[in-house]
Amino acid sequence: MRIYAAQSVQRYKKILAENPSNPKKTLFTKLFDPEKGGLADDEIQKEAQGYIVAGSDTTAVTLTYLTYAVCGNRRIRDKVVAEVTALSEPIHDNDIRNLPYLNMVISETLRIYTAVPFGLPRSVPSGGASFNGYFLPSGATVSTQSYSLHRDPTIFPDPYTFNPERWENPTKEMKDISIPFGGGSRICIGLHLARMELRLGSVLFFREFPNAQRSDKEGMSTKDMEMQSFFLMAPKGHRCLIETE
Fold first, then answer.
1. Of 8, 33, 116, 160, which sits with the fewest C-beta atoms within 10 Å of its C-beta?
2. Residue 71 in marked binding region
3. Could you report the per-residue pLDDT of 120-175, keeping only the tens digit for each?
4. Is 158 helix (H, G, I), strand (E, B) or coil?
5. Where are the domains of the chain?
6. What CATH class is the domain 39-117+146-243?
7. H or E segment at 123?
């Protein structure tokens, strides 16, 4: 990943050198300009590595589990297919961002299969802080992880069941406790892009393969899809086989 990030930085620097007045714009273009608070190459490389991890594997894993979950329930799949096949070409996010059932499916996928399900540690600021009747001393490490929150049966009845309809009329508690992208001032800055990618990827897949279903070929089973996480979560078997006919 470091090598790829370094190569990408050098490749873009070459583009800037060849066309400094009108380069191809990217999220990183201003970072190369020292007059606009630019960064050193190694700092840009670290930022690039963050985007590679946070902006690719996370969405890919979520789409994998969304496809797996939907293809495992014909009723859900047929409702998704009916909604997305009614769209007219060309497909644009403006046309799909408000699709009711697809967005319920995405919300339920993010609930059960959060790509970063573990807590992200934070340090209590100087002077300490009080929370819910407890005093937290300065410098203490605290975190909130989504895995347990998203499975709280008092908020999400039958929490281990993939049920998109639970998001048809979500309660305030459901909204408050759902943190697939984190929360607060450090919430994921790419959440809107991620949702756009999830919508578009889902629409294109189920329009192309309306009869998709889970496969049991090559010994594929639910064990392959067990969640395994060290930081990012991914299927334990590192595969998800789907049949399209």
1. 160
2. no
3. 888 999 999 998 899 999 999 998 889 999 999 999 999 999 999 999 999 999 99
4. coil
5. 1-29, 39-117+146-243
6. mainly alpha
7. strand 122-123
